[in-house]
Amino acid sequence: MSTKDKIIHTSIELFNLHGERAITTNHIAAHMGISPGNLYYHFKNKEDIIRHIFALYSEHLHTHFKPLTPDDDALENLAGYLDSLFELMWRYQFFYDNLGDILSRDEALKKDYIEFQAALLEQVKEVLLALRAGDIITIEDADVTELAHMLKMTVSFWTPYIKARRLSGELARQDIYHGILKVLLLLKAHCTEHSLAQVNQLRAKYLALANAEPTAQ
Amino acid sequence: MSTKDKIIHTSIELFNLHGERAITTNHIAAHMGISPGNLYYHFKNKEDIIRHIFALYSEHLHTHFKPLTPDDDALENLAGYLDSLFELMWRYQFFYDNLGDILSRDEALKKDYIEFQAALLEQVKEVLLALRAGDIITIEDADVTELAHMLKMTVSFWTPYIKARRLSGELARQDIYHGILKVLLLLKAHCTEHSLAQVNQLRAKYLALANAEPTAQ
DNA sequence: GTCTATATACGGATAGAC
DNA sequence: GTCTATCCGTATATAGAC
């Protein structure tokens, strides 16, 4: 792996562990055993690193969250989405811990973020409409946007919410599964009679994962 | 108003407008037309100021969010809670914009926060059970905790969610009303047949406020 | 590409006069 | 209680050698 890529991945790791604010460029360099000067050879500044991480984040969503087509099995797709959301929430925790701060320091990133989230909202709405078409949920047109916002907010801020509840701000994979359960709770409220059993099955699956022993990770 | 109180209220105002991270003790002093030294006569440090603000926040919740009793009109109480939540979300925006950061810098505050939130969770659960007893909602015991968490998370992170969606991170009172609507969306999913009309009435009320002209504040 | 050394900038906080 | 002046610590970023 190139030094540049190593810097990106070390940054993600340290940011997630200790928070973006607490990790300086010097920390990143020291943890990798390279000099600060070397880090600045590869990146213009700290924001530049974060911008590269955001690109990975966008790419992840873009790759794993393609809208489903009428031919797809809606429920199967839903399960796939949940697993992708798990990965997203886990890998890019730090981003939402300090979202306001990070965006306020980088006008360009903020613009990209806003644009991306607007497109994402439309995508989530499409998914909801597809789930309705697939007879998985019932929902009035007027409520689609509201539910989409709630889903986005939940995925974004579940990890900061959990971190704020414990002294050591560390997260376990189980915590993320609890977040996935919240997504399912939001959907459950709109389930059709015949999909309820299936969605409850998904809930049971993630509940088991959420309550698994930490050592069983 | 004493200088000490003025410092607290100026801090809240500036923190809400520009973010806690961006506002230094020097900014606060300059905005008030006092010297930095004077500010430090009244407060040990920046965290000390924030701790005092947190006390106001706790007090607000403590005063306006008393659990309802079986004698109360559950729906009337619910409407009261929503108005109090509005005030809370509006006044202490900055706190949730940077929650992780703020808590990580002050171990004592973090402990207080965690303890307070744990108690608050129990209180929200009580309220939900009272709403069930008042025949406003139906909910299985197993789902009460999950719903309570969702309500808390929504109230906490709605404002950061909205701020991240616009270039100027400023919030309008309408944005908060949209947040209240999200709380009602969560409750609506559990409404009984006879309460649905009343809850929809509340939704209509806040929808009207949310869509009102900014100048009509 | 990588290093060492260092400049710059600034926020937090204190000392001591009034 | 309030001010002025200033110190200290630290994060970011650069210069220039290798």
Automatic annotation (TrEMBL), chains A, B:
DNA-binding region of this protein: 24-43
Record keyword Lyase present: no
Protein name, per record: TetR/AcrR family transcriptional regulator
Keyword Chaperone (UniProt): no
Originating organism: Pseudoalteromonas lipolytica
Protein keywords: DNA-binding
HTH tetR-type domain boundaries: 1-61
GO molecular function: DNA binding
Organism placement in taxonomy: Bacteria, Pseudomonadati, Pseudomonadota, Gammaproteobacteria, Alteromonadales
Superkingdom, natural source: Bacteria
Annotated Pfam families: TetR (PF13972), TetR_N (PF00440)
